[in-house]
């Protein structure tokens, strides 16, 4: 039972996440020789204010474009 954990900034659409899990599942099954039914994928969405790179919070380093 492979488990794939994806951590990424929040903000992806449901369609983007759907495509991501479909592709990860298909390719994990192909590469590892396991059934797709046994593959688990967990997506953890993290706010940019809770993620830092190089000593700087990502919401400051990579601000969202104005709406």
From TrEMBL:
Keywords: Isomerase. GO terms for molecular function: isomerase activity. It holds the Pfam family Tautomerase. The active site is at 2 (proton acceptor). Its EC number is 5.3.2.-. Residues 2-59 form the 4-oxalocrotonate tautomerase-like domain. Coiled coil: none annotated. InterPro entries: 4-OT (IPR018191), 4-OT-like_dom (IPR004370), Tautomerase/MIF_sf (IPR014347). Belongs to the 4-oxalocrotonate tautomerase family. This is Tautomerase. It comes from Montanilutibacter psychrotolerans. The lineage of its organism: Bacteria, Pseudomonadati, Pseudomonadota, Gammaproteobacteria, Lysobacterales.
């Amino acid at each position: 039972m492979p488990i794939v954990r994806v951590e990424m900034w929040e903000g992806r659409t449901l369609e983007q996440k759907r495509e991501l899990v479909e592709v990860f599942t298909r390719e994990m099954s192909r590469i590892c020789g396991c059934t797709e039914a046994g593959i688990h994928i967990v997506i953890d969405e993290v706010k940019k204010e809770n993620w830092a790179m190089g000593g700087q919070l990502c919401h400051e380093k990579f601000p969202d474009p104005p709406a």
